[in-house]
Structures are given as C-alpha cells and as structure tokens.
Amino acid sequence: MRFNVPCKAFYSAVSAVSKVINPKNALAILDNFLLELKDGVLTVTGADVDNSLTARIAVTDHDGECRFCVTARRLVDLLKELPDQGVTVTVNEQTFEVEIEYTGGKYNLTAIDGNEYPSFRADEDESEPISFDINSAALLKGLEYTIFAVGDDDYRPMMKGVFFDITPDQIAFVATDTHKLVRYIDSRIKPGVTGSCIVPVKPASVMRNIFSKDTVLHITMTKKSASIESENFTLKCSFLNGRFPDYNRVIPKSSPFRLTLDRMSMLNAVRRVGVFVDPGYGLEKFKITAEKLLIKSDDNNMCTCARETVPCTFNGPEMVIGFSAPFLIEFMNVMPTDEIFIDLADPSRAGVFCPSENEEGTDLVMLLMPMNVDKF
C-alpha cells in the first residue's frame, strides 16, 4: 500500500490527534496512532481509555488499503522537521514495515497490525441517542467562559468537567469548584432536544484546540458518551458520572447593591496588588465607597503591603469584602465587555459578576465566594 500526502496537512492532523494521547498509557498500543487508508482518505486516530479523536486527510496517488499503527511521538516529531512538500508513505502489508520518503530523504519505521488497536467502547448502554447541530463558535465560546472554573477535587468528581444543560431552545454551559461558579446561556442555539451531560476537562480542551470557529458540528449523545463531528475531525468522549449541583438555586435572584467598574483598570490593579498577597491565601481586601474602590493586600510574613485605588460607582453603603486575587484575575480575563457589574448583598455572600451588556441571546453570570476579612 502506498499514498502521497502534503507534509503540512499530515503534520497538522497528527499534531491535533496527539492531544488526546496520554503521556503514559496502561495499554502500550495507545502510545500509537492508528492510520487507515480507504477510498482515497487517510484517517489518523489517537485514543486514551475514555476518549478518541480521528482526523481525516485527502491523499493522492494512493494504491491499496491498509490499517496500521505507528508510534505517535516519533511520527509527530518527524513530520514537524520535514519541509513543506509532499511525502510518499509505503507500507508492506505482510511485514508492516513503513517507509516515509520525500525529495532528499527516506525514513523507515516499524508498524503494528491495525487490527490490534482497541475500539472506542465508552458507551455500552442501549439508551436512545439524541443528536443536534451546533455552530462551533457557540460551542467554543461556552467552553471559553466556563472551563477555567472547573474543579479538581477528587472527592467531587462531578465538578471536574463542564456541565451541558440542553433544552430545545438553548444550551447552558456551567462549571463550578464550590468557590466560584460560571453559567453561560446561549439561546441562539436551538438543539430541538433535551439532555444533559458533564464533559471532562480533557475532551473540552481538545475541542477548543481542534475545531475552527467557522464550521457546523454534529453532536450525537447517549447517557454515557458523545460523538462530535466536523468535516475533518471526529471526537468521541466519555462523560463524568454523578449528578451536577443545582446551579440555578445557587445563583442569587437579586442583590441590592451594584458596583460598576472599568474591567481593565480593575484587572491591572488586582494584578499589581496581587504581587504582595500572602501566597498561602491569595486574599485581597476591598473597601468599597460610592466613588472609589480601595484595594489592599499584605503579607505579614514578609512585612509587605500594597494599596491601589480604582474609580467606581457604588449604590450601597461602605463595604469591606475580601476575594481571591487569582480567581478575580480569571474572571476579569474572560469578561467580554469593557465595563463590568458586581452585585453584592453583604461581605459574607457571593459576589455576582456580569458584563455590562450581554450579546443578544446570551446570558453570562459568574459567582465568587468572598474570603474572611478581620480588618481592612
């Protein structure tokens, strides 16, 4: 079997697929790519025990069909160094010797019979699947707003992923680690079906890396897994087990006081003051008045202190509250507007962060639990 393929396209495909392969695998064969040539299309598949990703590349001058496995890391490293020109791949179907040739060089690899590669079997239940189409830009935006808020506590495995709450007229993307919560609703998406799932961080990150922003994705879901398909890629992933918290009960219906701030002014001030926080706590203290916000941090162990003042508008009484500096920076980085609102009730209740204006058909809300402040 032989085929010719542009090196750049080949490298782009294997580089993308390699993102799903673990650095260390319990099954040695999962250190390999599965390559299959059929009907003039080369498919490259990588997998771990819970996810698989397949890329498709059109080839030329092809002869024969074959399934074989090659070491993933070596193939990626080789194609990365080759010049941008066509390469010819020849496979001996009896000995599984692979020859990669281009003008000026020839490389030989040893392959494995592709029939030994395991198939993706995350979904062994017989539940009726649901399917719908979604614009990739909408999916990527939902993941961008939520993935940073995913938890990492092994005792709460259901929080180690992004929750998709799907109704016929919208999709809500939700993530929480108990300290912070993000909910992003996009009602421009009309799935026409009802369902829910918790997508782990790894496949969610892979989606952000491989899918372009100008394509339509076809999603097929069962209770345990999903298949997300574009023109060039198919990602299959297993869901997390467990019941996601009732996020709607956590979000306050209304908070009486609103703090209005310039996002970049707040972000830069929090970053500068954050240099002086106690690294064990990350606490920044805020004294909020009608027209200015005083930010303070100190590290008694190092005898350091920092203060900054940021202009603001606040319609409540003077308030002192504490927040985690790293969490605040994450919030400010993903907020889509230049002006932001922080709705507050009192120093012991969560602050509700939201953009000054949501894009039509969307609703973004972020909650951050305060930290204890003994004195300012």
Structure report:
- The protein is α+β, with helices and mostly antiparallel strands.
- The chain is 18% helix and 43% strand.
- It is built from 7 helices and 27 strands.
- It has helices spanning 7-17, 72-81, 136-146, 201-210, 247-250, 263-274, 325-334; strands spanning 2-6, 32-38, 41-47, 51-58, 60-63, 66-71, 86-91, 97-102, 105-110, 112-113, 130-135, 161-167, 170-176, 180-186, 195-200, 216-221, 225-229, 233-238, 257-262, 283-288, 292-299, 304-311, 313-314, 319-324, 339-344, 351-355, 362-368.
- A 9-stranded antiparallel sheet has the order 10-6-2-3-4-18-17-16-11. Strands 15-12-13-14-27-26-25-19-23 form a 9-stranded antiparallel sheet. Strands 5-1-7-8-9 form a 5-stranded antiparallel sheet.
- The chain is elongated and about 80 Å long.
- The model has no long low-confidence stretch (mean pLDDT 93).
Number of helices: 7
In order across it, which strands form the biggest sheet? 10-6-2-3-4-18-17-16-11
Secondary-structure class? alpha+beta
Which bin fits the share of residues in helices?
A: 10-25%
Q: Tell me about the biggest sheet?
A: 9 strands, antiparallel
* N-end to C-end Cα span: 74 Å
Approximate shape: elongated
Strand content: 35-45%
Say what oligomer this is. single chain
Residue windows where pLDDT falls under 50 for at least 5 positions: none
* Average predicted local confidence, pLDDT: 93
Q: Rg, please?
A: 25 Å
Got a strand count? 27
Write the SSE topology.
Layout: E1 2-6, H1 7-17, E2 32-38, E3 41-47, E4 51-58, E5 60-63, E6 66-71, H2 72-81, E7 86-91, E8 97-102, E9 105-110, E10 112-113, E11 130-135, H3 136-146, E12 161-167, E13 170-176, E14 180-186, E15 195-200, H4 201-210, E16 216-221, E17 225-229, E18 233-238, H5 247-250, E19 257-262, H6 263-274, E20 283-288, E21 292-299, E22 304-311, E23 313-314, E24 319-324, H7 325-334, E25 339-344, E26 351-355, E27 362-368
Helix pairs in contact: 1-2, 6-7
